[in-house]
From TrEMBL:
Transmembrane portions of the chain: 6-28, 35-54, 60-84
Lineage: Bacteria, Pseudomonadati, Pseudomonadota, Alphaproteobacteria, Rhodobacterales
Protein name per its UniProtKB record: GlsB/YeaQ/YmgE family stress response membrane protein
Domain of life: Bacteria
Keyword Transmembrane: yes
UniProt keyword list: Membrane, Transmembrane, Transmembrane helix
């Protein structure tokens, strides 16, 4: 886990936050509703996904470079945002 933190660095963290903001923004525009919720969930999911995968033992993620980490973060953010959308739509 610490190896992943060293490999990612500050630039990757900024990239993950940007990916999460973009995913949250798109989800907010497409689904409508609470834009702030989608932005926060997008950022949290995009930042957390690479760490969760590293904790599960997928160390190849760090070796794949910044682009692979960004792609995985985007996929993770989209999945979590879809789950949030389903949960919030159910409560309406």
């Amino acid at each position: 886990m610490e190896g992943l933190l060293d490999a990612i660095g500050a630039l990757a963290l900024v990239l993950l936050i940007a990916v999460g903001l973009a995913a949250g923004f798109l989800a907010g525009k497409i689904a409508g509703g609470n834009m702030a919720l989608y932005l926060v969930v997008g950022v949290v999911a995009a930042v957390a996904t690479p760490f969760i995968l590293a904790a599960l033992g997928l160390g190849i993620l760090a070796a794949g470079g910044l682009l692979l980490i960004a792609v995985v973060a985007a996929i993770g953010a989209v999945v979590v945002l879809a789950l949030v959308r389903m949960a919030t739509r159910r409560n309406e």
